[in-house]
Write a structure and sequence with these properties.
The chain is 76% helix and 1% strand. It is mainly α. Strands 1-2 form a two-stranded antiparallel sheet. Helix 2 packs across helix 12, helix 5 crosses helix 6 and helix 7 runs antiparallel to helix 8. The longest helix is centred in the first third of the chain and has 33 residues. It starts with a helix and ends with a helix.
């Protein structure tokens, strides 16, 4: 059986590798090349060296977007994971109507980002109107509007992952800890959290990447207003690439930098949480 698998392994892998090469590797390599070019279409690309990357360093709006996105990601990762874990703990305590609660919390994740953005724009602007303010009054209002939107959208999804992790904890471990006199906090710290570390790894990875890649909600909620001060990285790249003639190469260079930032953060986060899993 094992010999047969090894023999036909290339046949089964080949279609996937071809699709992956055509759909990801080839466009990615072309994109990296175009980041060193000045172009309006792929066919008229002219190599200009690293000039596109040097322009990025002098782009104060891009630097602001990077810092704004980093701050947003840190805050959203903490809030989403903490709240999702707390709700998951509550819904694994045998509360009546647990399945209904799970469904209600999960449903926002099924709604598209653009639609969510416009829904929350109406809701939040309606509330802020009582104070003669709007989401675009300052970047602070836009920031917390995005935080509220992302928490509402993603907490339910992360909650499902945490519930799965919590339910896989052997009941004997918790019972043994309680028999030994461990308090609820000690059980949480020494038993529950170590056992759900794989779930924490997954949820942290998802919320990190979702935070940095946020686009639809940012576009619909504030569109970067006021004066592009609430513009996150993905929206900044979009506006550079499609909003400024002659800056397509700069936009492509920003996209490459954006990819590298997200890739490095994802790898470091994965290694950090995996090392904690091993320690546990």
């Amino acid at each position: 059986m094992e010999k047969a698998i090894k023999k036909y392994f290339p046949i089964f892998v080949l279609p996937t590798m071809v699709a992956f090469t055509i759909g990801f590797i080839a466009p990615f390599l072309l994109g990296v090349y175009l980041s060193f070019c000045k172009f309006t279409t792929v066919t008229d690309a002219k190599f200009v060296g690293i000039s596109n990357y040097t322009k990025i360093l002098g782009d104060s709006v891009f630097i602001h977007s990077l810092g704004y996105t980093a701050l947003f990601t840190v805050v959203s990762v903490i809030l989403i994971n903490v709240l999702a874990f707390v709700i998951a703990m509550l819904l694994t305590k045998g509360i009546k109507g647990t399945n209904i609660f799970r469904t209600v919390f999960f449903m926002p994740n099924l709604i598209g980002g653009i639609i969510l953005g416009y829904i929350w724009q109406l809701l939040l602007n309606g509330i802020l109107a009582h104070f003669q303010r709007t989401l675009t009054y300052s970047s602070v209002y836009g920031f917390w509007g995005l935080i509220i939107l992302m928490c509402w959208q993603q907490i339910g999804y992360m909650m499902i992952i945490y519930i799965s992790g919590i339910q896989n904890i052997p009941g004997e471990l918790i019972e043994a800890a309680k028999i030994d006199g461990a308090s609820s906090w000690q059980v949480l710290k020494s038993v529950t959290l170590p056992m759900v570390m794989p779930s924490i790894t997954i949820c942290t990875f998802l919320t990190l990447t979702n935070g940095f890649k946020l686009f639809d909600q940012n576009l619909a909620l504030t569109n970067g207003a006021p004066s592009r001060m609430s513009e996150m990285l993905a929206l900044n790249i979009y506006n550079t690439f499609y909003g400024r003639t002659g800056y397509e190469g700069v936009g492509q260079a920003k996209a490459v930098v954006f990819f590298l930032i997200v890739a490095v953060i994802a790898v470091l986060q994965n290694k950090l949480t995996r090392s904690k899993e091993v320690q546990q």
